[in-house]
Amino acid sequence: MKSRISLFLIYVFFALFLFYPLAYVFTKCFYFEGNFSAVFFQYMFTNPVLRECIINSFILGITVTLITTILTLPLAFVMGRFKFRFRGLLSSLMLVPMIMPPFVGAIGMRQMLARFGSINLLLMKTGILKQPVDWLGGGGFWGVVLMEVLHLYPLMFLNMSTALANIDPSMEEAAKNLGADGKHIFRTITFPLMLPGYFAGAILVFIWAFTDLGTPLIFEYTRLVPVQIFNMVTDIGENPMGYALVILVLLLTVTFFWISKAMLGRESYTMMAKGQVPRTEKELKGIGGILFYIFVFAVICISLLPHISVFLTSISGSWFMSILPSQITAKYYGMVFNHPLTVSSIRNSLSLSAVSMIFDILIGLMIAYLLARTKIKGKEILDAIVMLPLAIPGLILAFGYVASFSGGILDPRNNPFPLLIIAYTIRRIPFVVRTAYAGLQQTSVTFEEASQNLGATPFYTFRRISMPLISANIIAGGILAFSFAMLEVSDSLILAMKEQFYPITKAIYVLVGRIADGPYIASAMGVLGMILLAASLFLSNKFIGKRMGELFRI
Known about the structure:
CATH topology of the domain at 1-26 and 330-554: MetI-like fold
Strand order of the largest sheet: 1-2
Family: Belongs to the binding-protein-dependent transport system permease family.
Structural class: mainly alpha
InterPro entries: MetI-like (IPR000515), MetI-like_sf (IPR035906)
Number of strands: 6
CATH superfamily of the domain at 1-26 and 330-554: MetI-like
Number of helices: 25
CATH architecture of the domain at 1-26 and 330-554: Orthogonal Bundle
Largest sheet: 2 strands, antiparallel
Protein name: ABC transporter permease
Distance between the termini: 31 Å
Low-confidence stretches: 267-275
Strand content: under 5%
Domain ABC transmembrane type-1: 54-260, 346-540
Helix content: over 70%
Mean pLDDT: 82
Shape: globular
GO biological process, one term: transmembrane transport
C-alpha cells in the first residue's frame, strides 16, 4: 500500500513539473484562435531566418557527432583492447573536459582563437602563418563546434568503452580461430555488436550539441534554434514562434530518446554469453604504439586548451596582441568574493543547489527502492520517466516553466527560486537514482528480510539497514547532483530574470557582456566552478568507481 502511495506521489510530481509544462507548450503551438492549427509550425519552416537556424542547428549537431565519433572510436578501441604504459592515467586525462561547461571554456577560447589571439600570433611568430586565420569562421560556427567536440567527446568515449567492454570475447575468439584477421573481425563482429552503445552516445552528443545555449551565446553565433528560443522568452506572450521551435526540439529529443532505448534494449540479446571467455589484451608497441601515443597526447593537449585559456584570462592584468598575458594578477579572484553580482550569485547557487540536492536524494532514493525492491506494476514506465530528464534539454523545460507558470504563484518573473529548485531537481534525479539503484542491486536483500522478520517496519529497515549499506552510492549521487546544479546553464539563463536572483552561470554570462573587467571576473568564477566540478567527479569516482560511465548514458 505504501509503495503504491509513493509511486502515485512520484507520478504527480513528474506530471506537474515535467509533463504539464511540455503539454502546455504543445497546446499553445497547435491551437490558434480556439481551433487546432499547424500554422505556426508551418511558418517556422517557411520563414527564411528560422529555417536557416534549424538547418544550422542540424549541421552543428551532425558535425559535432561525426567529429567526436572519428576522434573517440580509435581511442576507445585501443584503450579497451591493448595493454600499454600509462593507460589508466591517459584514460583519466581524457575525461578532464567534463569538469568545465563549454560556455565557460568559450570565454577563454575567444582570446585564444581571435584574429589576433594567442594561436595566430604564435603561428605568425614562428613563421608558419603570414596572415591570421579566422579560426571562428562562419560567424563563430567553428568555434562552437570546437568547444562542443572538446566537451562532449568524453561522453562518446565512455559510451564506446562501455559498449566494447560488454562484447562477449568468445565471439571475437571464434572468428579469429576461423582465420579472420583483425580488420575483418572489427568490421563484422566488434563494430556491429557495439552499435547499440555507440548510438546511445551519438544521440546524447547530437542532442546536447543541438540544444546547447551557452556556447553560441558566448561566441555570438545567434543563427541557431536554442538562441532563438532564448531570445523569444522575453515576448513569450506575443510571439508564438517560440512554442513551435520548442516543440520541434522536443519531438526531436523524444524521438531520439526512444531510438536510444530501443537500441539499448537490443543490446541485452547479444550479450548473453558475456564473461565465459577471459579477454586477452595485446601489447601496444612499434610504430602503431608511437602513433597512438602521439594521437592521444594531441587530443589531451587540445582538450586542455579551454581550461588553460580560461585560467590565463582569469590571471591576466593585460593581454592584448601578445601570445601570453603581459601582466599577471590575482585581483579578479578577490573581486569574485567582493563584487555585488558575484557574491549574490554564489550565495544563490549554493542555496539552490543544496536544496535541490536534498530533494534529489529523497525522491531518488524512493524511486530506486521502488525499482529495486518492489514488484509494483509499471516499473519500466517509471524507469523511463526518471531517465527522460537526461534526454529533454534544460532549455525546453525552462521555456515550458516560463510559459505555463507565468501569472501564477510560481511566476519566475517575480521569484524564480522555486522553479529553479524544481528544474535542478528534475534534471539531476537520474544521477541519484542510478547510483542508489546500483547500490541496492549489489546489496543482498537477506539483510532487509532478516530485519523485517524481527519485527522492524520497512521504513525502519531501509533507514537502519539499506541506507548505511549504500551510503557511498548516495553520497556520490548527491555530490554529482549538487555540483552539476551549481553549474547548470540553460535553466539559470532563462528562469533567472532579475539580477538579485542570478545563479553563478547567469552572472558569468552577464559579466562576459560587460566591458573592462567583466570577462576576467567571469573567467575567475569559471575556474572556481571548474575546481568544484573536478573535486565532485573525483570524489564520486572514489565512491562508485568504474560505474561512473553509466551515469552519462540515456
